């Protein structure tokens, strides 16, 4: 009987320490977290680079400390997903250039967003009015999520601001805003 309990305890210990998530699942999560279409690429230690062409270094991913953390995680929760993205994805700086993603300098009116949103809408320009609700909603989202994905409506708002920048600047100067 004692042998049975020892055997059961060994099995339980093995099950308890066995990976909960596969390496394939880890790679799938990373690829979905860092898609090139979102202007993201691998951190240098997790990518194989040939000029601007790159692919994931699956061996480096498998051998990383974060992979071990992932394998033992009880669930795929938001903090774990954020940690994976921070570990494996390049989101800022020189590593983006290595992938052929170059920083884009926005005009001052867009750089000042969302601080200047109230001033922009106080001009009552009909070109901006269709975006008021979207901008309000996005500003509320910014208070909850530090770096949310920018919705298409906000991108369109930026395009409209850019298109009418001369009119907006002259009105802001006239109103001393």
TrEMBL record:
What range does the record give for the signal peptide? 1-17
Q: Which InterPro entries match?
A: F10E9.3-like
Instruction: List UniProt keywords, sorted A-Z.
Output: Signal
Domain of life, per lineage: Eukaryota
| Family annotation (PANTHER family) | PROTEIN CBG07386-RELATED, PROTEIN CBG17380
Q: What is this protein called?
A: Uncharacterized protein
Q: Which organism is it from?
A: Caenorhabditis brenneri (Nematode worm)
